[in-house]
Amino acid sequence: MYTIGEVAHMLGITAHTLRYYEKEKIIVPERNESGERVYQDTHVAWLRFVMKLKQTQMPIARIREYAQLFSEGKRTAELRLQLLEDHHNSIKQQMETLQETERILAQKIVSYKTMLESEKREET
């Protein structure tokens, strides 16, 4: 079992972020006798997944929707699958855009280096 501070440290996020995820019903930590949040390994694994979804531009609303569907059990498996497939397709499109942008940038960089090298040779 982990405290909110321990989980925040483990994941490299703030306790405020964890409270926000709780407010958004993305995670529901347990509480100890004193009412303090207590996290299990399963919470940490779930939060790692949530962070990956965030890093790949999934909106909080969609993450909340996925969390809600998950909490409803097996009967929502098809909806969860569709949500994840949609996000996977979005990631593939992002990757294609990034790869094309990388190619264009690489060409520009070569162009500038060539120009600068040419100018250097002319100076000498």
Q: Which range best describes the helical content: under 10%, 10-25%, 25-40%, 40-55%, 55-70% or over 70%?
A: over 70%
> What CATH architecture label applies?
Orthogonal Bundle
Characterize the main sheet.
2 strands, antiparallel
Radius of gyration computed on alpha carbons:
22 Å
Spans of 5+ residues with little confidence (pLDDT < 50)? none
Number of strands: 2
- How far apart the termini lie comes to 68 Å
Strand order of the largest sheet: 1-2
N to C succession of SSEs: HHEEHHH
Which fold name corresponds to the CATH topology?
Multidrug-efflux Transporter Regulator, Chain: A, Domain 2
Mean pLDDT score: 95
SS field, number of helical segments: 5
Q: Supply the CATH class.
A: Mainly Alpha
Shape: elongated
How would you describe the overall organization of this protein?
The chain is built from five helices and two strands; from the N terminus they run ααββααα. A two-stranded antiparallel sheet has the order 1-2. Helix content is 73%, strand content 3%. The chain has one domain (4-123): Orthogonal Bundle (Multidrug-efflux Transporter Regulator, Chain: A, Domain 2), CATH 1.10.1660. The chain starts with a helix and ends with a helix. With 124 residues, the protein is mainly alpha-helical. A hairpin with a 5-residue loop joins β1 (30-31) and β2. This is MerR family transcriptional regulator. InterPro entries: DNA-bd_dom_put_sf, MerR-type_HTH_dom, MerR_fam. Residues 74-104 form a coiled coil. Keywords: Coiled coil, DNA-binding.
